[in-house]
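Exercise 3.2. Students should predict the tertiary structure of the chain below and write it as structure tokens, then compare their answer with the key that follows.

Predict this chain's 3D structure.
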Amino acid sequence: MALLLGYDVGSSSVKATLMEAGTGKVFGAATSPNQELEIIAKKPGWAEQNPETWWEHVKLATAKIRERTQFDPWDVKAIGISYQMHGLVAVDRYKRVLRPSIIWCDSRAVQIGQQAAKAIGPKKCLKKLLNLPGNFTASKLKWVKDNEPKLYSRIDKIMLPGDYIAMKMTGEIKTTPSGLSEGILWDYEKDALAEFVLANYGISPDLIPEMVPTFSVQGELTAEAADELGLKTATKIGYRAGDQPNNALSLSVLQPGEIAVTAGTSGVVYGVTDKKNYDSKSRVNVFVHVNHSEKKPRYGVLLCVNGTGILNSWLKQNFAGEGMNYPQMNDLAAQAPVGSEGLTILPYGNGAERTLENRDLRASVHGWNFNIHKKSHFLRAAQEGIVFALQNGLTIMTEMGTRLKTVKAGNANMFLSPLFAEAFATVTGATVELYNTDGSQGAARGAGIGTGLYRGTNDAFIGLEPVRTVAPNKQLKKAYQAAYESWTETLGRQL
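Answer key:
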């Protein structure tokens, strides 16, 4: 039996999945820790984690699978890694971590990115980077250079979180084009390292690791790593990618016009295109997709709305009532009509929103009538507001030339609500396919592609079938369109 092992290294936990290569069935899965990982915030706006902690939980998650399945380590043919994007890991020449990782939600380098955009020129940045430097990995490294010069002088290589995990496994420090693009270090005109960004920051290109293809043999388990993981020496690492490109891979979203959607605490829409387009206001981001090549370019356009599932969670904890669960909330919300009889909720209560040009608008309720509106209206207006916020972002993507052909999502979080799924399909006009998959499964399939266990990407998705399909409701199309127009008018008055 050929097995594939995928890891999803997030800021909350590490999930590992062992998958049968020939069937695509999950052989075993585990998450570590049981509670969310600590995020260290020494100052407001800071967010750090110790990379060593990620490695410890990679080992613990693997140990749980070993205990539950008793699999033969010789059956594991390849390993894939998915990881939290935009983080910074710095090591010295002995591969020792020099400081905690500055992770994705840390905002200390915002001003540095703004200054770089002005110095380089916004037009040049957008043309060559398809993004502005922003608060991404390169800007975080510049912050270390400016504020921790002694430590900076000891840096031999910088990495993304997934590169670090791969280093612990193989002893080799490498990165990928997709990884460099998420750090805003990829020159799309040259299909190469963006040395002009490094030059602006006064950073040597020597700090950047060797580049390898996203799907490729990227090293083998050392004897030490194999012993720590309970696997066999020389097991191949065949894939690594940031969590959002990888989530798209897990749903087989690889071709232009295909869209992956997640609606957990925050909501993400990730669309694939073959065009080098950008948003002039940088309200969405563009990255090199996992299957990009010079001959067949593939770019991922990423839209994020911070306030999605967290709004529904807040309502459950503070509004819905004692003991009411999410299915009961969904049933109650469905009792209100489309448009919630004029009640509108803007779901922007989870920090500054990129789609709103980094404004921190805060969440708000509009059109509240004491004689009309009940709990059901609020619950429905919240779900509709999340859908409308995502559609507002999708409009930006379509204006960039991103086509909306197929929408795929995990059968989880907000998509477990029939109301939400129907509203999303009807407002976007797209049939939504829902799958039981996740990032660690995507990483496992990616490992099979990268090591040649699969002949191509099509073969890698054996066993991946939609568990549910939601089509637009033609009868409710006009009602949803009117509700969306009312919502956008409300948003316009707040901006």
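Discussion points: The radius of gyration is 22 Å. The chain has two domains: 3-245, 252-436+465-495.
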